[in-house]
Design brief:
Helicase, Ruva Protein, domain 3, elongated, eight-stranded antiparallel beta sheet, 22 helices, 25 strands, alpha+beta, Phosphatidylinositol Transfer Protein Sec14p, 31% helix, 715 residues, 24% strand
Length: 715
């Protein structure tokens, strides 16, 4: 595989001629490069007018390689041929180098270029590129590649230091100006020479953003915090070293090269909007600077962004009022490192209510808008704090987390959101602080953690109870002045408090079926009709004992009885009730019976849970840990009102209820899933013993004239 390197643009605030004088002092040998033993001039050419000077040298290098490898290779030194082509008229120096030693086994090519800065003729630009292709090397190909890259990158770092060293040496000798080349027939005036000699070189060579220079900024203006940002993403601009350090951070030479090469590839091939440099860098970091892998995931992300118009989401999409009122999350100042801080009160959020009221797509779009806002805040904080900030910190408060948050469709929606964010916003999470984690948290973590990248997981810090208040806690990462008030801090936090979403805002089955957007609940929920004498039943086959059957259902109409049965033998294939006996059709729902009428309870099948009476409007979530393999039947059965005693008059509530179910029809929307016991990895106890705290709160939530309490079953 060919290894390639491309440097950023290095800009020196010195005239080209002075840089050339410093560069020539590197030969025939340079004490600052220990491996550069010496060089001999092989060929040399000068034009008559002195404008062109081509010199070819044979350079001797003492490569820092294991003695055994040198012995196997049969050499002590490695020789390179370097050809320097100086054009004083154009003020350019092109350097080409290739290896002479082992040229039939290893191919090394390097090209360097010194040119005058296009916007300031008294400054000099430097660029460098190289390639390494190891065909064969006595079975040590990988070792030689590592040695070559290590030696090369170490010399790249020294390149700037060496030029600066010789510039200082020239200055100590009183040489601060070297006249430009002029044709022999033209003699510069004494006045020009005199004024030019007074020019003093800057004390140190520095690099500045090329794009900023195009705006006509001086060096002083560039150092000002109010200096405009360099333009990013234009085809002609190039990255320079100072811009990278200021806005992207300290990168190794090879990391710089990966960024530049991937950016160049995008400029040449991508037809749409070019991502900003910091975002390209995130994809590279996510794939350990493997260009091919980073390119693949970034292209997929760019296609995704274009399809969903994500670039315009902050300007064109307004979150529904339900999200603004009940999504308990928001931005809150910044952490000690200057990262934007996002606070999420997950324990106070009704995840089921939000999914039922909005659908997964709206929630996903809202999370995308949060991420887009996070990118914008990172750019803003980079300017404010004067250092690269490319990620944010997320503080998650889990006080109030319970089994309701483990509602399986909600967890699945969360997993899909995590998948989308991981794929399109890599390396944006700098730190995740999880506070007040309750006993049920290990279950949620077990379900979610496999979908989170290893690099991201290492950024998680989890605190149980009030541990966040002690040493190594919140104060290590967030200033005391901005700790939110709900965490016993001094700062008022404007993040919504969440709470239960009113069921009056829930979408009905018909709305979900007719929704244009593909909502998660369309594929997760099924609707069923339950009639008097015709229950609805579903079959769950269990192979391994200790598996967990989970369910979640809403009673949309009427009252029902929920039962769970077990049988060692399989029922007959499901049959849908034609409902002919009832003379009732079943639009928008189905009705299936599995238990044969000849089956006897206790002989052919057994009840494994006590019957549960569920009233109209109730939401029920629960789970059952199976004791035996076999066939489990979940049944929703019509609940008949108890007959009133002859001596007593019917109650008003009974009359109203009988009017409501006069059609002898009930309707449920349900979702079930089987989870293998191994998926919980020891968290089964938490699953069995955790109860919902929302059941008390939900009593105040109504969707009709009656009060509908939300029941939670946990066995």
């Amino acid at each position: 595989m060919v290894q390639k390197y491309q440097s950023p643009v290095r800009v020196y605030k010195y005239p080209f001629e002075l840089i050339m004088a410093a560069y020539e002092r590197r030969f025939p040998t340079c004490p600052l490069i220990p491996m550069f033993v010496g060089s001999d001039t092989v060929n040399e050419f000068k034009s008559e007018d002195g404008a062109i000077h081509v010199i070819e040298r044979r350079c001797k290098l003492d490569v820092d390689a294991p003695r055994l490898l040198k012995k196997i290779a049969g050499v002590d030194f490695v020789y390179f041929v370097q050809k320097n082509s100086l054009n004083s008229r154009e003020r350019t120096l092109h350097i080409e180098a290739h290896n002479e030693t082992f040229s039939n086994r290893v191919i090394i090519n390097e090209h360097c270029c010194y040119t005058v800065h296009p916007e300031n003729e008294d400054w000099t630009c430097f660029e460098q590129s190289a390639s390494l292709d190891i065909k064969s090397f006595f079975g040590f190909e990988s070792t030689v590649e590592k040695i070559a890259m290590k030696q090369y990158t170490s010399n790249i770092k020294k390149g700037k230091e060496i030029i600066e060293y010789y510039l200082r040496q020239l200055e100590e000798e009183g040489i601060t100006f070297v006249p430009r080349w002029t044709p022999p027939s033209i003699t510069p005036s004494a006045e020009t020479s005199s004024s030019s000699c007074k020019k003093q070189a800057a004390s140190m060579a520095v690099v500045i953003p090329d794009a900023a220079l195009k705006e006509g900024l001086s060096g002083d203006a560039l150092s000002s915090p109010s200096a405009p940002e360099p333009v990013v993403g234009t085809p002609d601009d190039k990255l320079d070293a100072d811009y990278i350090k200021r806005y992207l951070g300290d990168l190794t030479p090879l990391q710089e090269s990966c960024l530049i090469r991937l950016r160049q590839w995008l400029q040449e091939t991508h037809k749409g909007k070019i991502p900003k440099d910091e975002h390209i860098l995130r994809f590279l970091r996510a794939r350990d600077f493997n260009i091919d892998k980073a390119r693949e995931i970034m292209c997929q992300s760019l296609t995704w962004r274009k399809q969903h118009q994500v670039d315009y989401i902050l300007e064109t999409w307004t979150p529904p009022q339900v999200l603004q009122d009940y999504y308990a999350g928001g931005w809150h100042h910044h952490d000690k490192d200057g990262r934007p801080l996002y606070v999420l009160r997950l324990g106070q959020m009704d995840t089921k209510g939000l999914v039922r009221a909005l659908g997964e797509e709206a929630l996903l779009r809202y999370v995308l808008s949060i991420n887009e806002e996070g990118l914008r805040r990172c750019e803003e904080n980079t300017k404010v704090f004067g250092r690269p900030i490319s990620s944010w910190t997320c503080l998650v408060d889990l006080e109030g987390l319970n089994m309701r948050h483990l509602w399986r469709p909600g967890v699945k929606a969360l997993l899909r959101i995590i998948e989308v964010v991981e794929a399109n916003y890599p390396e944006t999470l700098g730190r995740l602080l999880i506070l007040r984690a309750p006993r049920v948290f290990p279950v949620l973590w077990t379900l979610v953690s496999p979908f989170i990248d290893d690099n991201t997981r290492r950024k998680f810090l989890i605190y149980a109870g009030n541990d966040y208040q002690g040493p190594g806690g919140l104060l290590d990462y967030i200033d005391k002045e901005i700790i939110p008030d709900f965490l016993s801090g001094e700062c008022m936090c404007e993040v919504p408090e969440g709470g239960l979403v009113p069921k009056s805002l829930y979408r009905t089955a018909e709305e979900l079926e007719n929704e244009d957007l593909k909502l998660w609940t369309e594929t997760i929920y099924q609707s069923a009709s339950v009639f008097k004498g015709a229950p609805h039943e579903i079959l769950v086959q269990i192979v391994d004992a200790s598996s967990v059957i989970t369910w979640d259902f809403d009673v949309c109409k009427g009252d029902i009885v929920f039962n769970i049965y077990h049988s060692k033998r399989s029922p007959q294939p499901p049959k849908k009730d034609s409902l002919g006996a009832h003379s009732i059709t079943s639009p928008g729902g189905n009705n299936v019976q599995l238990i044969d009428k000849v089956w006897q309870l206790g002989r052919d099948y057994s009840m494994v849970e006590s019957p549960l009476i569920c009233k109209e409007g109730e939401s029920v979530q629960g789970s059952h840990v199976t004791r035996w393999p076999g066939f489990y039947i979940l049944q929703w059965k019509f609940h008949s009102m108890p007959a009133c005693a002859a001596s007593s008059l019917p109650r008003v509530d009974d009359v109203l209820a009988s009017l409501q179910v006069s059609s002898h029809k009930c309707k449920v929307m349900y979702y079930t899933e089987v989870i293998g016991s191994e998926d919980f990895r020891g968290s089964m106890t938490s699953l069995e013993s955790s109860h919902s705290g929302f059941s008390q709160l939900s009593a105040a939530t109504t969707s009709s004239s009656q009060s509908h309490s939300s029941s939670m079953i946990s066995r």
